[in-house]
Design a protein that fits this description.
Radius of gyration: 18 Å
Structural class: alpha+beta
Oligomer: single chain
Helix content: 10-25%
Shape: globular
Order of helices and strands: EHEEEEEEHEEEHEH
Strand content: 35-45%
Largest sheet: 11 strands, antiparallel
Number of strands: 11
């Protein structure tokens, strides 16, 4: 059984090449651990926001009850075969706490995402359908990707990281760095994940890497009770990706 946490590091154009998160992580991991390199990985993520109806009863935030709905389409190379579509509703909350796993002083509370899986080869057609036929309901916000990114096995941990880029070809723009830390906590049959323990272990591992200024996503809503099987474990990671990539936008 494994649990994971995802960290997003915003871009900083003032950093030297050695200080860039990807280069610093590689140097730190090689210096501190006995590494086993894993296959490279990537992702593609599309974000849509629900278009508010032209009604005087609709709040400025997007819907009549003050919430905002997002649709996300995600392909992950290390979860092959499927793409994932999720719809999440968020609400502004001045008293929101970061104790649920989202760091950086966020004041947005999101409901657990409703997620479906579809064949990965169909994700492009699905996104095109949303854009061409349902554009009045959903407005495209961004498309980002991570390509040919690094991954290492470090004892009971797997670390994946890479640059998030927006656009395509020569016009790509760096939008930050993502780091996934997965902790293998034992056999699949040992029961549900203790997320308080998992979050603590992952945070300590991250702290020892010495990277500052990251937003953290570990124990998002909807993950409790998941993670006891391989399928659930993948869905936990998908929920975390939806949260961190929506926050990035």
């Amino acid at each position: 059984m494994a649990t994971s946490g995802i960290f997003f590091i915003p871009p900083n154009p003032s950093l030297s090449p050695a200080e860039l998160p990807v280069n610093k992580l590689t140097a730190t991991l090689k210096r501190q651990y006995n590494l086993e390199q894993l296959p490279r990985w990537g992702l593609e993520h599309r974000l849509f926001r629900q278009t508010p109806p032209p009604s005087s009863s609709t709040s400025p935030s997007g819907t009549s009850d003050g919430g905002v709905s997002y649709m996300q389409v995600l392909n992950l190379s290390y979860l092959p075969g499927n793409a994932y579509v999720g719809i999440t509703k968020t609400h502004s909350s001045p008293s929101a706490s970061s104790s649920g796993g989202v760091g950086g002083g966020d004041t947005v509370v999101s409901e657990p995402a409703t997620i479906i899986a579809l064949p990965s080869q169909s994700s492009g057609d699905f996104s095109q359908l949303i854009t061409s036929r349902l554009g009045a309901l959903w407005t495209g916000r961004s498309m980002v990707s991570v390509n040919n990114a690094l991954a290492f096995s470090v004892g009971d941990f797997t670390v994946r990281y890479g640059e998030v880029k927006q656009g395509s070809g020569a016009g790509q723009v760096a939008r930050g760095t993502v780091v996934v830390i997965e902790w293998d906590v034992g056999d699949e049959g040992e029961g549900e994940v203790n997320w308080e323990v998992a979050e603590s272990v992952i945070r300590v591992f991250w702290r020892d890497l010495g990277i500052e200024g990251a937003r953290r996503v570990v124990r998002v809503k909807g993950v409790e009770g998941e993670g006891s099987g391989k399928g659930d474990r993948g869905m936990v990671g998908v929920r975390q990706w939806f949260e961190v990539l929506r926050m990035r936008a």
